[in-house]
Amino acid sequence: MNVYDVINTRILELLEQGTVAWRKPWNAQSNYPKNLISKKPYRGVNIFLLACQQYSNPWFLTYKQVQDRGGHVIKGSKSTPVIFWKFLDSKEPELSEDKNGKIPLLRYYSVFNIEQTEGIPYPPAEETHNIFDPITRAEEIIAAMPMKPDIRYGGNRAYYSPTLDYCNIPNQHTFNTIEEYYSTIFHELAHATGHANRLSRKTILEPSYFGSHEYSKEELVAEMSASFLSDHAGIENTTIENSAAYIAGWLKALKNDKTLLVHAAAQAQKAADYILNVKPEAQEE
Asked: Which residue range forms the structural domain that includes residue 98?
């Protein structure tokens, strides 16, 4: 398997787990993945490959670096591939891919997060600490949701677990803006409305894979609902651009379904109404 195949396979695995690169408005710079030995941050696609992991620490090492430091990799740990590339002088400049007569050298190697190891001291993870000033109306919306799922804070991922019925949100002070925090929690709460004990939405109840019609539709529902809720909270103007980009990304996967947007919007309205604890009959069409 060549380098491109390895990296593409890994990215697809991350996407199938629901990891979306453009939906991560927290810890913008402080937790960039770095090599523990060199202390240098990773670059390019390596940032995506490593930052999408569930680990709270940014430090990574190769297996040999772990051994050289006197530690060991915890049994069963799965490594992550990262790439290394540079340009070399070509012996045949006329055949090179670079105007200066150089050819690219591309390799990949595997690394482990420090949390996958034992016996190695390391600096504590730095965490963005922005001032968090709660928005009253947004807090009221969250508090009003009937049968609200458990909301857990921490880590580097935002997600809803249909099986265990809880939302996980990174710590509030790690978000780039207060508005993005509320937009994110609205998005995950919208997913939670699909639980069997709430609106019993097919796109949550039935297993689906990344990129499938049902998965993509559920993401549209959640983001459109988050947009509606942000409007109710008075923060829509500051989050609409990100929401539009997010929605446009999913629509590309469903461009052949002309009814999708209308159906997703209807489901999103139901989700927003549920969270707001508003009866549909009380609303004008």
From this structure: 3-118
